[in-house]
User: Fold this.
Amino acid sequence: MTDAATSPNETYVIVGAGHAAGQLAASLRQEGFEGKIVLVGEEAQLPYQRPPLSKKYLSGEFGLERVYFKPPDFYDAAKVETRLATRVTRIDRDAKTLTLESGDTLGYNKLALTTGSRVRKLPILGADLAGTHYLRTVDDVDGMRSGFEPGKSLVIIGGGYIGLEVAAVATSHGLKVTVLEMESRVLKRVTSPELSGFFEEVHCTRGVEIKCKTAIAAFESGSDGKLAFAVTADGEKIPADIALLGVGILPNTELAAEAGLEAQNGVRVDEFCRTADPDIFAAGDCTDHPSALYDRRIRLESVHNALEQAKTAAAAMCGNLKAYDQVPWFWSDQYDLKLQIAGLSTGYDTVVQRGDPATNKFALFYLKDSVLIAVDAVNAAPEYMMGRRLIGDRAIIAPERLSDTSISMKEMV
Ligand SMILES: Cc1cc2nc3c(=O)[nH]c(=O)nc-3n(C[C@H](O)[C@H](O)[C@H](O)COP(=O)(O)OP(=O)(O)OC[C@H]3O[C@@H](n4cnc5c(N)ncnc54)[C@H](O)[C@@H]3O)c2cc1C
Assistant:
């Protein structure tokens, strides 16, 4: 039995009510914690999954009940007190209290920060016109979906995963979509020119217009005061009934930083999700954590990271140290394509293609100094699954073997 299981009078507070928070609450009970758990979240909803927001929730295939992280009755059953629509504004580490926006205070014995991230806002003229949207929350999608009518023009700023997923849903709904990307290609921040080129072609074939090396300068309204044009830095005016700004996120670190915890590119934690304060832990998008696999500190924006760090943090809060050392993985759904990504390709020196992109089923393997560091797999589950395992093993595999489809992925091991 852990220390925490013998502390039924203690209160553990979780700040944030996203993926990491929901998992952390469940994991604290699994670890045997019998005390009080309070989950405080700024949004009005119980913890929900964000990935469907740019996919099946946006398309209307999923209702809200399908995106909840746990069924609503889980929280009562697990004796987790939820305080929603409640923002925490301050941590007093000496008094071990939190200040809420209402001015009330809440005491804690141990605290978990799962404050996630927020969208990066573009400070340009017209960005607040009716018809312009960001996408992070259920409320954001609910606000945007009503404009999703066939024949309308949607301009997406930013050719990252979220922008391209929304482009796929919108095009399938009969909207005319233009993507403006400042860089020389879409997905430049996260992947290789080969994968970017594949997705650019996929979207162009479906009628999406992608304009790279094109920065947005402003949005202009029509005579009704609503959005009418996206204006590029070159002065081009693109008709727009709706616009989505998808230009990245910023980790929510202010609460930790103002309490004197180190938080530059995320709240700094060790491999057990511990901050420098022995009673404060952090998990998910908001953390800057060590990666033994890549031998550097990283910050990830992924569901898998949020879930696994939450388990690590809950265990550590209960005095049970289990190091977090996972191969990062992500996914993106666009049209009938499932992209699965394992590892981080940053710094690769060799890319190996396996399969033919023309068949919409292929994988790109990334090597650095002959070691496999990442894989992008399109409709190619075995390449993703085995690739992930091989990345974790720091495998050295000859490029000609990886590209040879007559050798099965199982035989690569
Ligand atoms: C549209 C979209 C699609 C995505 N698709 C994928 C995908 O396909 N695959 C994938 O792996 N990942 C995807 N992601 C990323 C993934 O959803 C995030 O990595 C994950 O949600 C992180 O979970 P989290 O709990 O760390 O943070 P969050 O989900 O950001 O939750 C943090 C919560 O804390 C709250 N909060 C912040 N500060 C305070 C405060 N002071 N007081 C109270 N509450 C506070 C926030 O309001 C928020 O509700 C997607 C994200 C989005 C937005």
Summary: The radius of gyration is 23 Å. The longest helix spans residues 303-317. The domain at 336-412 is CATH 3.30.390.30 (Enolase-like; domain 1). The first strand starts at residue 11 and ends at 15.
